[in-house]
Specification:
The complex is a heterodimer of chains A (about 260) and B (about 450). Chain A has four helices and 13 strands. Chain A has a 13-stranded antiparallel sheet with strand order 6-5-4-3-2-1-13-12-11-10-9-8-7. The longest helix of chain A is centred in the first third of the chain and has 31 residues. Chain B has about 450 residues and is an alpha+beta fold. In chain B, strand 12 and strand 13 form a beta hairpin. In chain B, helix 3 crosses helix 5 and helix 4 packs antiparallel against helix 5. The chains are: A alpha+beta (about 260), B alpha+beta (about 450). At the A-B interface, strand 1, strand 2, strand 6 and strand 13 of A face strand 7, strand 8 and strand 11 of B.
Chain lengths: ~260, ~450
């Protein structure tokens, strides 16, 4: 009996030791998660550092009526992005340029770039200029806290400067592929401004596997919805001079 | 009474169970069908045929505009008398305006050809006038993003001001009531050379321009035939847009200037312009009522800001000092001249002085006096109505206190249509600028269809 008890006690101690070891390891690994490096990986999974892409923006009104815009976008490095409207005809030729925190809008008839702000929207609807001319998340945000919940990371991000459109982001990330599932954009006080839902993961070729649709809703636009659909995302290098006020009227010449 | 479980396995409950099962399957299939319909329709909603947007060598675009207007005329004003002294006297004037601006381009490799014809037709009780103009028409070569060379008729838009641009040395006068309108360019050879850097100076651009003037080319750009030279240096320095501009040559007196634009905060932009104009020549009405010529130097400047509030209201405010503008006493002399000329026409049917007055174009410009304030307030999507933008624009003449007030409603909710209802009410006393315009107020509907 004593031997049996001793064996049972030994098994229990080993099991407890193993449990404590794994549990400690799990807690340590959760504490060791580097949110900023996850954010950087998310950025690279969403797009190469320099790329070109086509996007369709769809504004959906509460009565179901839609209005669509098609844009050609180019980005280089961490601080340069430009977009050209291809459709509808009323917006064709409009271009937007972002160089770090500076943003400009070029309208063909006006033929003069004017400075715009990240909170404005050149298309109307829930998407604003900073959504359309987005730089890498890791450039604009740092991760304050990371949670590890049921196959997902939850990244609680804070803006690095006050010039960005949203003070705080909460990003739900699919752990396996490190792709964002949902992004809540909030004010400093934590008030929800808009929610982005990233859907329909697609292989764009060249190693780019990412959500192809971003749906947006905002409590500020009750009943309205916007969606951004991606196509032809390709890694491509550009000269710095592409991202200048002089070149902005000529963005279309980059399209092949 | 509580039924025992055995009751549930009796024949009748089995039938009702089958019926329920059948209903369930029916709902399931209906649900699946409905879901598939909704899902397929949602997929259609987010379909993106990117091949439809492949770049083509030929491209055609532009817009057609219809603009009926109603003017409430001011028969006692100086400019009504100068313009309509020999017409039937009317209190109101209905005007129809139709225009087509087309944009035709051909691109192959580094080569591009662009043609922008503008056709318009104005019809009213006073006139019926059709015009065809080439706004732009040029060939360009882009060997690299750093360098582009243009030859032909081109519009250059220099300056940072919204309503006025003192540094816009190579363009036709901007209408502060409609600063966003497309305008005709000049024939020229020009190029853009750009270089980007890391550091406080991010961009450097140089734009040299050669503008020929003769009786058949750019005839409104100067009096003497010959070549004129202009240039612009653009810098993005310390996150500030800075332009240095110059124009000189045989047809134009020398002019130079500087402008800047910068964001103080992400929602608050400030801008300014200053231009020095040498040896300007103009005709004016002297205090003794005679028309004289003078040659003078002038400094024109503008300070402005653009602010976006949290409620998405945009405010554009600009102060403009027009160095070539007239003072109050000079304008009074002009109004007295027109009064006298009109009396002479009534008494002696002599229209010569009225014709002379109409030829004094310095007085008939958009803002002919010295100091103005411009304010435009725009509200995006008010009351949750997407694509609707109400706005009001005020131009106040600080020299005499008269003003133009223009409320408007713009709606862009229908794809490729833009609808705008705009009114303009001019306030002021007799012998003040806006009171002496040909109309007291105006109402217009502008419909544009883009293709």
């Amino acid at each position: 009996m004593r031997k049996k008890n001793l064996a049972a006690f030994s098994i229990a101690v080993i099991a407890l030791a193993l449990f404590l070891t794994f549990e400690t390891a799990f807690i340590l690994s959760a504490q060791d998660i580097d949110g900023d490096s996850i954010l950087e990986k998310i950025d690279r999974n969403l797009s190469p550092e320099s790329f070109e892409a086509y996007r369709k923006l769809v504004n959906i009104e509460p009565n179901g009526r839609t209005k669509e815009f098609v844009l050609y976008t180019v980005k280089k490095g961490t601080d340069k992005v430009a977009a050209l409207f291809l459709s509808p005809a009323s917006e064709k030729g409009r271009s937007t340029l972002r160089l770090d925190d500076n943003m400009w809008l070029y309208i063909p008839n006006v033929a003069k770039p004017i400075r715009i702000t990240s909170l404005q929207s050149v298309v109307g609807g829930v998407f604003n200029n900073s959504d359309i001319l987005r730089l890498d998340y890791a450039v604009e945000y740092s991760v304050e806290r990371t949670e590890d919940v049921d196959g997902e990371y939850i990244l609680h991000c804070k803006a690095r400067t006050r010039t960005v459109a949203y003070d705080r982001l909460t990003i739900r990330v699919e752990k396996k592929r490190l792709l964002p599932i949902q992004i809540d954009c909030m004010t400093e006080a934590g008030m929800l401004i808009k929610r982005l839902s990233l859907k329909e993961v697609k292989d764009f070729g060249g190693g780019i596997v990412r959500p192809s649709v971003i749906e947006t809703e905002s409590p500020l636009y009750e009943g309205y919805k916007s969606a951004m659909i991606f196509a032809n995302i390709k890694a491509r290098e550009f000269k710095d001079e592409v991202f200048t006020l002089t070149f902005i009227p000529q963005l279309d010449s980059l399209r092949r | 009474m509580v039924k025992c479980p055995m009751d549930l396995s009796s024949a009748k409950p089995m039938e009702s169970e089958k019926r329920r099962y059948a209903w369930f399957l029916g709902f399931l299939f209906l649900g699946l069908f409905f879901f598939s319909v909704v899902a397929s329709s949602q997929e259609e909603e987010f379909e993106f045929d990117v091949d439809a947007f492949t770049r083509k060598a030929f491209s055609v675009g532009g817009y057609v505009e219809f603009r009926p207007s109603l003017f409430w005329l001011n028969q006692d004003s100086a400019f009504y008398r100068l313009k309509y002294y020999d017409q039937d006297q009317r209190k109101t004037l209905e005007e129809g305006y139709v225009a087509l601006l087309a944009d035709l381009s051909y691109r192959k490799g580094i080569f591009e050809a662009l043609l922008e014809p503008y056709l318009d037709w104005t019809v009213s009780a006073f006139e019926s006038d059709a015009e065809a103009t080439i706004f732009q028409g040029y060939l360009s070569l882009k060997p690299s993003p750093s360098l582009t060379v243009y030859a032909g008729k081109k519009t250059l838009r220099w300056g940072k001001g919204y309503a006025w641009s003192p540094t816009a040395l190579v363009e036709r006068q901007k209408n502060p009531n409609e600063p966003d309108l497309a305008r005709e360019g000049y024939w020229m050879i020009t190029s853009d050379y750009t270089k980007s850097f890391e550091g406080v100076l991010k961009t450097f651009s140089f734009t040299p321009v050669i503008i020929p003037v003769s009786q058949s080319v750019n005839s409104t750009s100067g009096k003497k035939d010959g070549l004129n030279f202009a240039g612009k240096i653009y810098l993005l320095f310390l996150d500030t847009d800075i332009d240095l501009v110059v124009l000189t040559g045989k047809s134009q007196s020398t002019r130079f200037g500087l402008d800047f634009s910068r964001n103080l905060r992400s929602n608050w932009e400030v801008h300014g312009e200053i231009a020095v104009l040498r040896d300007l020549e103009r005709s004016y009405v002297a205090n003794d009522g005679r028309i004289q010529k003078e040659i003078f130097d002038a400094t024109t400047y503008l300070l402005g800001m653009r602010y976006l509030s949290e409620a998405e209201t945009t405010y554009i405010l600009e102060y403009y000092h027009n160095g070539i503008g007239f003072g109050s006493s000079e304008m009074q002399a002009f109004y007295s001249f027109v009064d006298g000329a009109y009396q002479r026409y009534l008494l002696q049917v002599d229209e010569s002085l009225l014709k002379e007055g109409a030829g004094l174009t310095s007085y008939s410009g958009f803002t002919p006096m010295a100091d103005y304030l411009f304010l435009r307030i725009m509200q995006k999507d008010p009351f949750g109505i997407l694509y609707l933008t109400p706005a009001v624009t005020a131009i106040v003449n600080l020299s005499d206190g008269s003003a133009s007030w223009a409320p408007e409603l713009t709606y862009k909710g229908f794809t490729n249509f833009e609808l705008r209802l705009k009114a303009a009410i001019l306030s002021g006393k007799s012998r003040e600028e806006f009171r002496e315009k040909r109309n007291r107020s105006r109402l217009e509907l502008r419909v544009r269809y883009f293709f």
